[in-house]
Amino acid sequence: MKKVLLNPRFLLPLAIILGLFVMTARIADVWDRISSGKLLMHPAQAEDTTTPAKDTTSPAKAEAPPESKANIPPLDAEVSPAEMDVLKQLSNRREQLEKRSHDLDTREALMKVTEQRVEQKIKELESLRQQVQALVNQAGGAEQAQLENLVKIYETMKPEDAAKIFETLDMPVLLGVIQRMKPAHSALVMAKMTPEKAKEITINLTKQDQLPQVK
Predict the structure, then answer these.
(1) So what's the pLDDT on residue 6?
(2) Quick one: CA torsion of 161, 167, 173, 176, rounded to 10 degrees?
(3) Phi, psi for 169 (deg, rounded to 5)
(4) Enclosing H/E stretch for 94
(5) Could you give the CA distance from residue 108 to residue 117 in angstroms, rounded to a whole number?
(6) No. of H helices and E strands in the chain?
(7) Phi, psi of 5 (to 5 degrees)
(8) 190 belongs to a structural domain
(9) Are residues 108 and 137 in the same domain?
(10) How far apart are CA 10 and CA 20, in angstroms?
């Protein structure tokens, strides 16, 4: 008897065909089990469906319930009043926490808005302060320039003429002029003033500790 030798080139296709055949048979078996409902059953239940039905005429066997079903608690068991109270308390507590969280978020948002408004007001007040300070500096500079001009004018006048004008000036203006005058000129003018006015000027200069310094 001659041995049949297969060409190696045909071994791989033959193996693939055999594998497909086995897989097809397996898929068909699974499909049959799915169709019959056996695939989703417990193995013990599947065996019960394949075995012949037992005799149910025996009273002892018919009345005995399966142990697996006897230990299963009913699914529609009612909740006890104590458990219901606990559930209500938990629900109320959750609502309170949610409300408190919402209140805190609202308060935080209001605080942020208030802080932004306060910062804006501070910036506006700082800008206003700078503007007022600039105006005061300008006014002070203009006043200083006016006093300097008055000092030059009074220093060129005769002492008796300047004394007559000094008698009519308000004390703050008079003090500002005398403090800026040269001591020699201010002394000549005060010598021509009335003793009462000269005394008043001297007392105010002493209080301010701004007596003219003799050079």
Answers:
(1) 54
(2) 60
(3) -80, 150
(4) helix 81-156
(5) 14
(6) 9, 0
(7) -100, 125
(8) yes
(9) yes
(10) 16
**pLDDT tens digits, residue range 137-179?**
676 677 778 878 888 888 888 999 999 999 998 888 888 888 8
Instruction: Enter the pTM of the model.
Output: 0.34
Asked, for residue 66, whether it belongs to a domain, the answer is no
Phi, psi of 176 (to 5 degrees): -60, -35
pLDDT of residue 209: 61
102 phi and psi, to 5 degrees?
-65, -40
Question: Residue 110 sits in which domain range?
Answer: 91-141
Structure tokens that stand for 89 in this block: 């308390």
- 173 shares a domain with 134: no
In a domain, 193, yes or no: yes
Q: Which of 157, 185, 175 has the alpha carbon at shortest distance from 211?
A: 175
Answer yes or no: do 200 and 169 share one domain: yes
181: which residues sit within 8 A by CB, 6+ positions away? 151, 154, 155, 189, 212
Name the nearest CA neighbour of 166 among 145, 191, 141.
191
Measuring CA to CA, which residue among 149, 177, 146 is closest to residue 163?
Answer: 177
Q: How many domains does the chain have?
A: 3
- Same structural domain, 101 and 134: yes
Q: Which amino acid is at 204?
A: N
Assigned token pair, 212:
């003219």
127: in domain = yes
Amino acid at 3: K
